[in-house]
Amino acid sequence: MAVGDTALQASDRDGRAPGPVQSQSPAGGSVALAGIGMRYGALRVLHPTDLSVRAGEFLTILGPSGSGKTTILKIVGGFVSPTEGRLLLDGQDISRMPVTQRPFNTVFQDYALFPHMTAEQNVGYGLMIRGRGRDEIKRRVAEVLSIVGLADRARSLPKNLSGGQKQRVALARAIICEPRVILLDEPLSALDAELRRQMQTFLKDLQRRIRTTFLFVTHDQEEAITMSDRVVVMNHGRIEQVGAPRELYYRPATEFVAGFFGDNNIIEGRAVAGGEVETPIGRLDLQGDLQPGQQVRLAIRPEHLLLGGGQSRQAAEMTFSAQVFDVDFVGALTHLRLRVGDGQTLKLKVPTPQLHDDIRPGCDVSVHWSRENMRALRPTS
Amino acid sequence: MTDDSLSIGISAPGRKPVFNGPALFWFVICALPVVAVCLPLGLFLATGFWHVDNGTMVPALSLDNYVNFFSNPTYVSVLLQTLTLAAEVAAGNMLIGFGIAYFIWRCPPVWHFPLLVLGTIPLLMSYIIKLYALRSILGNNGFLNQALVAVGLFDKASDLFLFNQTSILITMGIIYLPFSILPIYLTLERIPLSLLHASADLGGSAWQTFRHVTLPCSLPGTVVGGMFSLILALGDFVTPQMVGGVKGFTFGRLIWSQFGMAFDWPFGAAMATILLVLSIGVIVIAGAIIKRTEAI
Amino acid sequence: MKNRLASLIASAALTAVVAFSASARAEELRILTWEGYADDQWVKEFEKQTGATVKISYTGSVDEIFAKMEGSKGADFDVVAIETSSYKRLYEQKLIQPLDLAKLPNYKNLSDVFQHIDSIQFDGKPYAAPYAWGSLPLIYDKKAFPTPPDSWAVLWDPQYAGHVLAMDDANNEISTAAMVLGFKNPFNLSDAEFAAVKKKLLEQKANVLSYYAGFDDGISIFAQNDVSLMFSMGEPQVGMLQKKGVDAAMTIPKEGAIGWIDCWTISSATKNVELAHKWIDFMLEKRVGTYISTQTGYGNTTDPEANQKIGLTYADKLVFFQPPEDPKRRVALWNEIKATPVQ
């Protein structure tokens, strides 16, 4: 761990001076999936999908295993051919371009370092394949290794490197050929929590520095939120929602997205006339265009629930009386669970210093929230 | 006394029973190889330093057997020829074995197991039966000759395939091939698919990937495959005799003759020791190569 | 669990006691022999006649016989059947004792040829009774030889190069070559004779397709290749070849051929000299000889008609095995011959 720490700092220091990689690196490419789908016999792993990855952005595909996220990565990388659709790079169709020709490089989940080659041989592999001169390879490998902070491990075999170091060799190997897009297949999943956080920061910084498009696949929502410009949430071979992390977090469009970002409060209800929804805690005015009679699920994040009566008493405020039945101190935040109305449970996350000492299980409180933080979810197909 | 007998099976605090169940178990486990392997091997090594006098073995230690062996040009040249032969068999089997193992590996995975079984079925057959079968194929009146004459390639049956150097190579190659295919296939199988993807991803063509990734990564198994064939061929005293005709005289047969014909067990044991040392040498060299290449 | 163990031990002990008392009551004859030499019907009859029990240990090789006899100094066995050339070593190691001819009324049944075999006589006393015999003949393919070849010299005839099978056996190859060269005693060669034999066998090597290493090996090579002549390991090979469709026949060439005789002898450490003699006498009954010839195809020593019937009429033309002057030297010479390349 200590080695990883210092190495990361070293790389950051290197990074402040504009490196040759940065100056030579072409801007990232834009990739578009046009109706790309994948089927193994009768098994649908990816429904026809449209998705565009903007040039130079850090786009994360987030989803549970079997959601089709890795399939997209493999199709873009050229490791599998889609059963339908077209793949475009900067508007040009590259559907038939073989994997060896695509200006993309991949960081594999298991790093896929060549075990019989040293770190520098691994990193230089792409240049060696391209028939570059010995001196050029040597110089570029040294540059890239110092960017990832591994200049001192150049001669080590993969088996003598730590997980984090292997990870950075894999990254170096992927960036050395200056690809238009870098594909990352759950590259941090094998690392422990602390190292993973460091690598997240490192990856984000690296991406900004080399301005290449990053297409990142993960099943970890926290990872997706911290690193990405945009996140694509996938489930059952379909895209559920695409958006900036904050948007997905605070404005989930579907039940699945709301569920995937954890602990949203879900309130079941039925739409009635006038944009109102009948729920166990009473009638809520959503001001949305809902079909009367339609079943609706409403989501609101625990941190958007506030204790005490609404101060402004505006129409946008919704206030309810509730009973505390659980108080859970977890440090900076305290988690509360309240019972409201006819058996509805609501979770709250309150900054601990703002919490009165007399709030304990059994006491009555009032809770309010702003209507704009509440969303009616689209049912997941 | 009564205390002791009562405490059997119960470990009294601060005192361990000298012979509890597991200890006895491990003693037997350890004693077995000593009795079954080390003792006979030691006796056999020792026999190499004895000599035979008037039909009985005399356990008086001397280096005479070894001196006799190395001062006899016939024996030394038989040893060298046998080494060459075994090396040829090993080289051939590394090549062909790699080809077959690679082919199996590149087939769709559902075929791997059936193909491997097919490739190793000959191991289930008796060695002697295989030799007889091969000889009936390669013989003057054999299947191969009949087929070649039938398709018109040959005018008449040929002696090319049996009782010569070629037939020794062919037969030993075929008989020991499964021993080469298996380890090579196993290392190929161990190469993660992602390594091949990574090479392609970095622009490596099929040939470049094979040359820079597949081949080096499968080297340990290939070396082991060659080593198996080499050692087996080195000690084989039946195959060359049976298919090699008057050219089928090898070191193994030389050793055999001391036991089966001359009743000079000490001399035979000395030569067998030389073979053992050679085989260990081969294993050590192979191990060193593997250690240099094995990095996973 | 414990009870089961106890009952096991008890039953084992009981078995041992019963077995011990049984062996104490009846006389026991312990025989060390080849399979086929002490068939059930004769054993049963002998047991009935004498009231003794017979215990047979079968052996696969001469080596094994020596190992078993030397291991117990002869005490583990009462009678042994072994081939003539082994007697010198058995005698020198004092593992056998002379026969008492007075106790062998059937000894007179032996044909003349077998009354005085040198290699089983020591200090003027017979140590064994000949029982079965055979030869190492020349086998030929009748297609190549309408009339039998009369001399071993055909094996050297360049006309048959590549169509000759010789035997991977130092002793037999060297002895037969010595007979072809006309040496007086093929089992006791001088240095000069050794040199001549080596030259002769190297000449033969140029003619040889392969040195075969066993009964079946010889048959299979003969049948699958264009072979005309074979230095045979024994008469049964003729029938085996005929079964494979080869029109094979055998002959004893004019130089003679090597012969072997298996003889019964008595261990020096036997517990029952009387019973051992009774067994040998029983084995010398003519009907046992008849049985040997009809069942095994080998010659017997007591029934000339039975020999006649299977064509084994040439016992007088054979030179019976003797212990070679120096087995190690023979093997070394043979290895040298096999290691020398020929054109």
Q: Summed up, what is this model?
A:
By secondary structure, chain B is mostly helical. Helices cover 72% and strands 2% of the residues of chain B.
Layout of strands and helices, then pairs:
The complex is a heterotrimer of chains A (381), B (296) and C (343).
Chain A: H1 2-16, H2 20-24, E1 31-40, E2 43-53, E3 58-62, H3 69-77, E4 84-89, E5 92-93, E6 104-107, H4 119-129, H5 134-147, H6 163-175, E7 181-185, H7 193-210, E8 213-218, H8 221-227, E9 230-235, E10 238-243, H9 245-250, H10 255-260, E11 265-272, E12 276-279, E13 282-285, E14 295-300, E15 306-307, E16 317-329, E17 333-340, E18 344-351, E19 364-370, E20 375-377
Parallel strand pairs in A: 3-8, 3-9, 6-7, 7-8
Antiparallel strand pairs in A: 1-2, 1-4, 4-5, 9-10, 11-12, 11-14, 12-13, 14-20, 15-19, 16-17, 16-19, 17-18
Helix pairs in contact in A: 1-7, 4-5, 4-6, 5-6
Chain B: H1 2-6, H2 21-47, E1 51-53, E2 56-58, H3 64-70, H4 73-106, H5 109-120, H6 127-138, H7 143-150, H8 165-190, H9 193-201, H10 206-235, H11 239-243, H12 251-260, H13 265-293
Antiparallel strand pairs in B: 1-2
Helix pairs in contact in B: 2-13, 4-5, 4-8, 4-10, 8-10, 9-10, 10-13, 12-13
Chain C: H1 2-25, E1 28-33, H2 40-50, E2 53-58, H3 62-72, E3 79-83, H4 87-92, E4 96-97, E5 121-122, E6 125-126, E7 128-135, E8 138-141, E9 164-167, H5 170-180, H6 191-205, E10 208-212, H7 215-224, E11 229-231, H8 236-243, E12 248-251, E13 257-267, H9 273-283, H10 286-296, E14 299-300, H11 304-309, E15 318-320, H12 327-339
Parallel strand pairs in C: 1-2, 1-3, 9-10, 9-11, 13-15
Antiparallel strand pairs in C: 3-13, 4-13, 5-6, 7-13, 7-14, 8-11, 8-12
Helix pairs in contact in C: 5-6, 5-12, 6-12
